[in-house]
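Sat 14:20. Reprocessing the chain from the morning session after the first attempt stalled halfway. Input below, unchanged.
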Amino acid sequence: MTDTSKFRRLTAEAAPGMTRAGTFLARPPHRPENRILASLPAAELGALTPHLQLVTMPTGALLRHPDAALDHVYFPHQGVISLLAVTLTGETIEVASAGRNGAICPVLSSEPHDALVGAIAHGPMRASRIPAADLHEILPQVATLAPAMEACREALLHQLRQNLVCCGLHSVEHRLARWLLETSDRLETEMVPATQEHVAQRLGVRRTTVTLLASKLQDGGAIRWGRSRVQVLDRGRLEAMACGCYPTLRERMRAVPPAEPPAAASEMAS
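Finished this time. Tokens:
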């Protein structure tokens, strides 16, 4: 078993008392804000919708424990979900993430446990979720959903591979700039909710290291770091400080998954 005391502190500090995804609402709106769901034809989205549950989650809500299987697949409407690799002693590092342009599902379809990987909400979250078992049964009935889910897995695998290269070859300064850019992209805003402690846990470094590098980025005019959020002030300057993994992964991710809903889905929503 994994010693997840540090991982539990990560979730508890952000959302006291939260151990699972928080408030259950209703079915998703007719016009899904998640682009994977919005890309489905009207009839297929209609078949899937009764199985979806809309949930809201505070920062740090635990969606999946590192020692457990991912029992639900999540389609973010707002916010970002982080996949964190957790060591046997509880240290963490982010291996992938998804915003409303993707989904959180088992990275390997043959291995639903994805051992030693946990999932938490980065910032306030709103997402549609479906039990993984239900999704497996529905896939044959929803022709376009299977390739969409495969695209989501591919996007997560792209990130995992690129992060492996990045962590081994690039400095923490370059990785920090890249993480801020990518998280901003997935949130689709220049304001990134983050404390230096949370960023340190995602980069797998000490908080003091993030503090020093954040000051350098701030002094250079690229960002403004407040108590619990970072504002990207000069994206061009931040991109110049990031490693080459940022543009490389951005190009790969543009191919998956679909970015705009088809006309059929839009017509049903109107």
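The chain has a mean pLDDT of 83.
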